[in-house]
Amino acid sequence: METKRVYTFGNGKAEGKADLRNLLGGKGANLAEMNLIGVPVPPGFTITTDVCNEYFRIGKDQVVELLRPEVEQALKHVEILMNSKFGDPENPLLVSVRSGARASMPGMMDTILNLGLNDEVLEGIIRKTGNERFAWDSYRRFVQMYGDVVLGLKPTSKEDIDPFEKIIEDVKHEAGVHLDSELSVAHLKDLVKRFKAAVKEETGQDFPTSPEEQLWGAIMAVFNSWMNERAILYRRMEGIPAEWGTAVNVQAMVFGNMGENSATGVCFSRDAANGEKLFNGEYLINAQGEDVVAGIRTPQQITKIGSQRWAERAGISEAERADKYPSMEEAMPEIYKQLDEIQHNLEMHYRDMQDMEYTVQEGKLWFLQTRNGKRTGKAMVKIAMDLMREGLITEKEALKRIDPNKLDELLHPVFDHTSLLSAHLLTKGLPASPGAASGQIVFFSDDAAEQHAGGKNVVLVRIETSPEDLAGMSAAEGILTARGGMTSHAAVVARGMGKCCVSGAGSLLIDYKKRTVEIDGKLLHEGDFISIDGSTGKVYEGSVETRAAEMDNDFRELMELTDKYAKLKVRTNADTPHDAAIARGFGAVGIGLCRTEHMFFEGEKIRAMREMILSENAEGRVKALDKILPFQEKDFKGIFRAMDGYPVTVRLLDPPLHEFVPHDEKGQEEMAQAMGVSVHTIRQRVESLCEHNPMLGHRGCRLGNTYPEITEMQTRAILGACLELQAEGVKCLPEIMVPLTGILYEFQAQETVIRETAEKLFKERGASVDFKVGTMIEIPRAALTADRIASSAEFFSFGTNDLTQMTFGYSRDDIASFLPVYLDKKILKVDPFQVLDQNGVGKLVRMATDAGRSTRPDLKCGICGEHGGEPSSVKFCHRIGLNYVSCSPFRVPIARLAAAQAVLEEEK
Ligand code: PEP
Ligand code: MG
């Protein structure tokens, strides 16, 4: 059989169909499919991807020879259906030429519109449309597109200027206008003339006037674009084989500006903002797409109800609306009926909300495009749940339709879209904790707390934060720091609180003494308003309106659905009863990491802690720790009560002690007074404790091993709290976790202290509670010797923040200084502190899990680093057989969804 190289479509018929995607490319297959389901699409034809390969094998001349008969025939088919003729000045047909590979490759290859134009055809278009300006505008666009794409005038490097753009700038300058839309017909004519002269100068050839020549030139250019540098690079990155090739789609152009019975517009089968099942969209009579974008005329609503809602918002009376701004439903009822029927059919066919472009040419409706519509997080959930309830998609499909990252929009406040349009962007940092916040600048934690208590909204702006800033962070609407990465203190704590945070905004110059911050030359003072978006890292000047989080029944139903499929459990990182309660509300089934250091800061506790730090010997430390014990016990009771019946992993003290002492003069003076010692003594002690990033000194289990009395006190507090609660009928499942283990003996030494203390405590109280002793795996050596460590440790929790830090050798607090360059140069694809590095760090996690279980088959393994709430990392944890992930409370829903999706992806 002869090879078929060209597939036509149009008038409800098509030689191709959706499942010929490999041969026709995504676009070609879709155009064919739309025809087959009765959507009026401008007719055209698709040259197959196989021809692209043939082109590279046998060259242009032979391919043209092979293709010519089929292309000519296909063109005739289009001419008949459009009742016009390619290249005929009396009744011209214009076409578009577009690439279309099997996989979507956005922006990789170019499109040529209005092909078939020359000076004579132009006259025909003017006669046909009665619109001279439109005709010339189409012509100049065509010459530019063709010149750039086919004739190679488009610059290949960023530094070079597109000669056409330069001419446009010159003509606008001469005309004294700013916008293209302000150019007159005479200017547009001048542009075409100058464009053609530029072509002659650059190529030595005249701009091709023969439509046939133009068409073949465009077809070959699309094939060539498959091998351009951009495309090769994109394919390499996405793993797309070169043999796939691209198809070429040639399609009739249609015009919505051919009089009062022509129109153009866009429409959506459901509301993309809130998900409501309401057909909506806009149209403009006697216009083309550009007019809608240029904003010269205000498009009108297509449905009557949409139009009425619009008028109500604009304060326009119903009589005036119906007269001046009628909906399409009222103004073009026949067309509207067709549009409504087709949008309904398209949604039923694709089983998702459709975003459609259409044009009405002299009373005939054409669909130019349909695709699954972009939507807000709220609309995403509502539409998926509605489609499921309507029986259009299954439960599993509904789950797969949800982008876990977009759930954030439902869980945190976001900026109001309209307010954001007028906001002035100051700088960009790392999107450390999602949400949006607006408030007055404060630089110190105590000021934040004070001003918040006085009813003000504040944003805490710091070079970096430390546990000392906890109260201020909690009082602030959001936190902005100049230093620190995605796992810096500010980022981790803010995420735990569900508070918006932008970290590592390197262009911030903060002067604590003057209480000012300079951002790229703009000086802001304490009390000035600032707004930050923790989902994008953007920082805005002034106040920007926010919209509250919007969790509703659809969201709750979605969450219930995740439990039906997920295998991986989701715990939370929480260290207050309040956070624990929030996490339970979101469906967490335990605490995977309770960082005890945050419990040492409030009131009396920090005093006793500092007393311990100043003590010269164990005796002094024990005395100070005895004061802390009742507070710790009380804190633990709150947490275990909130987690009644669920396991709680409490990590023993981890951070270096210098985090508990003041570093500023004022703080040191206050501490000296409180402790009854000289400021000099305090300063000396602070200096001796000082460590620099990355903190790899006196922290983790090294603290507990050098000062075992700390471990003793914490063990007493944890188990003591459980004994009391148990007597009240609360079910406690404590898991005591040793941080930063690197050597088996380090762990064993701590385990001995814990078990001996427990035994003593149980004897004293005449009661006992079951508990486990396990470890964090966050040092590469621990991962490499996991089989040995599992001989003593009863569970593993991977601290992937530190494990990433130590595997890459990147300080987690200093990565912001080089990360943007690394991302820009594609040395790193993503921030490894945000998305788990599956090839390196992930490999250690997998190896350690397997090795640990080879010693202790029932070893419970989870992760508690920030990756525990990141969808791709959660899915990886499922695949390697971890038992749970643990993440900050507000990420629990995201992790639950990702865990369910991981199971469904496996089914594929
Ligand atoms: C970790 O290192 O991954 C971890 C959870 O501990 P932290 O962030 O407190 O160091
Ligand atoms: Mg750690």
Notable traits:
binds magnesium ion, eight-stranded parallel β-barrel, 908 residues, 47% helix, binds phosphoenolpyruvate, alpha/beta
Mean pLDDT: 93
The profile of the biggest β sheet is: 8 strands, mixed
Quote the beta fraction.
Answer: 15-25%
Judged by helices, strands and strand pairing, the structural class is alpha/beta
Radius of gyration: 33 Å
Number of helices: 37
Sequence of strands across the biggest β-sheet: 15-25-24-17-18-19-20-16
Termini separation:
36 Å
**Poorly predicted residue ranges:** none
Count of extended strands: 34
Summarize the structure in words.
- The structure is a single chain.
- The chain is of the alpha/beta class and 908 residues long.
- Strand 24 (529-533) and strand 25 form a beta hairpin.
- The protein starts with 5 loop residues before the first strand and ends with a helix.
- The protein binds phosphoenolpyruvate (PEP) and magnesium ion.
- Magnesium ion binds next to helix 33.
